[in-house]
């Protein structure tokens, strides 16, 4: 059991996205695209992880070993999502990522909680996606990437 005398929750657990698996969740016509989440996006920050993936078993073993009760999972490569300029593509990719996170991690282990990746390129769609992720997929919140292609602060009128 993952509960000791002190309750531990990892509130900032990052995963390494499996781009090939996320691709399986993309809807047409976007499922014709081959690569996304560049490891070295236009802001110049290199985002390649030192590990190739973080499968659910790795999370389970780690949590059991150190006594973590729950973990909230965030993207790693998906942090560059705000640099996507095409709003429709950003929306489709968010839906695919969030569905993948739910299927691969949250359904596999109730101790793992997802944090939705939101398409800030379209604030109305971001609102819809957050509602879907919380109400239908059971995620605990949503992520608005810190770096955006238009460099507008989240205090701007459009948000």
Largest sheet: 3 strands, parallel
Output the radius of gyration. Answer: 16 Å
Count of distinct strands = 5
| Outline type | globular
- Please indicate the percent range of residues in DSSP E strands (runs of 2 or more): 5-15%
What's the helix count? Answer: 4
Intertermini distance: 42 Å
Helix fraction, binned, reads 25-40%
SS-based structural class? Answer: alpha/beta
Mean pLDDT: 85
CATH homologous superfamily (4th level) name: Metal-dependent hydrolases
Count of spatially separate domains: 1
- CATH class wording: Alpha Beta
CATH fold title: TIM Barrel
- Ranges where pLDDT stays below 50 over 5 or more residues in a row are none
How are the strands ordered across the major sheet? 1-2-3
CATH 2nd-level architecture: Alpha-Beta Barrel
What is the N-to-C succession of helices and strands? EHHEHEEHE
């Amino acid at each position: 059991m993952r509960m000791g005398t002190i309750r531990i929750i990892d509130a900032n657990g990052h995963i390494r996205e499996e781009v090939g698996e996320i691709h399986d969740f993309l809807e047409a016509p976007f499922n014709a695209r081959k690569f996304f989440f560049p490891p070295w996006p236009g802001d110049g920050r290199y985002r390649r992880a030192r590990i190739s993936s973080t499968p659910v078993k790795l999370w389970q073993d780690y949590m059991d070993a150190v006594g973590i009760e729950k973990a909230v999972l965030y993207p790693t490569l998906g942090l560059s999502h705000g640099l996507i300029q095409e709003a429709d593509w950003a929306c489709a990719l968010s839906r695919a990522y969030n569905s993948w996170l739910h299927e691969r991690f949250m359904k596999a282990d109730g101790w793992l909680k997802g944090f939705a990746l939101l398409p800030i390129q379209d604030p109305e769609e971001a609102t819809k996606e957050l509602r879907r992720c919380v109400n239908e997929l059971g995620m605990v919140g949503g992520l608005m990437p810190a770096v955006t292609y238009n460099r507008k602060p989240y205090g701007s009128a459009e948000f």
